[in-house]
Automatic annotation (TrEMBL):
Annotated organism of origin: [Clostridium] fimetarium
InterPro entries named in the record: Nitroreductase (IPR029479), Nitroreductase-like (IPR000415)
Name this polypeptide is given: Nitroreductase
Family in the record: Belongs to the nitroreductase family.
Keywords, sorted A to Z: Oxidoreductase
Boundaries of every Nitroreductase domain copy: 9-150
Pfam family, one: Nitroreductase
Gene3D superfamilies for the chain: NADH Oxidase
GO function terms (MF aspect): oxidoreductase activity
Length: 175
């Protein structure tokens, strides 16, 4: 089978990770895949902020959970690394650009045996004071929206296979 296709269709979101560290070489490949994504008008006005220290991931998790009113049972599923993909809100393609970059990183990670998940809660709460203070401390530009967090790590449990709807594909051949 075509290797790219095989990689695409076998990727699953993962919500349970081991403690195994992702090597810097592999992380660099994943980030290179992220910045190689297409971007509207080639603006590349995004930033990829990498957090590797578990204490820092836990701190962000706590602040996001509180700001999203989900403090009780909220977590990022304890990944080894998170990558925050942010962009200037003036760029109307910010979310689309981030989505292309996130999927590139997920697929690169998967090809290296590293699992991933999109964490979505940050995008609407970046300007909550406690959240913005943390984002500032990471060097994320103060006007940026974090469109997505990429969880990365080795899977403790293989992600559940979901059924992909085939009937969403429509050919217009008869006109
Ligand atoms: C825009 C977007 C936001 C998502 N947000 C979350 C999230 O916050 N938490 C989560 O566990 N999964 C999240 N996911 C993962 C989806 O739940 C997952 O992609 C979907 O169930 C299909 O499963 P698959 O990725 O294994 O194909 C998100 C995915 C996308 C594309």
């Amino acid at each position: 089978m075509n290797l790219i296709y095989e990689n695409i269709i076998s990727r699953r979101s993962c919500r349970s990770f081991t403690d195994q560290e992702i090597s810097k070489d592999n992380l660099d490949l994943i980030l290179k895949a992220g910045i190689s994504a297409p971007s509207g008008m080639n603006r590349q006005s995004w930033q990829f902020t990498v957090i590797r220290k578990q204490a820092n991931i836990a701190k962000l998790e706590k602040v996001v959970g509180k700001a999203a009113n989900r403090a009780e049972n909220y977590d990022f599923y304890a990944p080894n690394v998170i990558i925050l993909v942010s962009n200037d809100p003036e760029n109307v393609n910010g979310l689309a650009d981030a989505s292309c970059a996130m999927e590139n990183m997920f697929l690169m990670a998967h090809s290296l045996g590293i699992a991933s998940c999109w964490i979505n809660q940050l995008r609407t709460i970046c300007d909550v004071e406690e959240v913005r203070e943390l984002l500032d401390s990471y060097g994320i530009p103060s006007n940026h929206i974090v469109w997505g967090i990429a969880d990365l790590g080795y899977a403790a449990e293989i992600g559940k296979e979901v059924v992909k709807k085939e009937n969403v594909i429509k050919f217009v051949d008869s006109l």
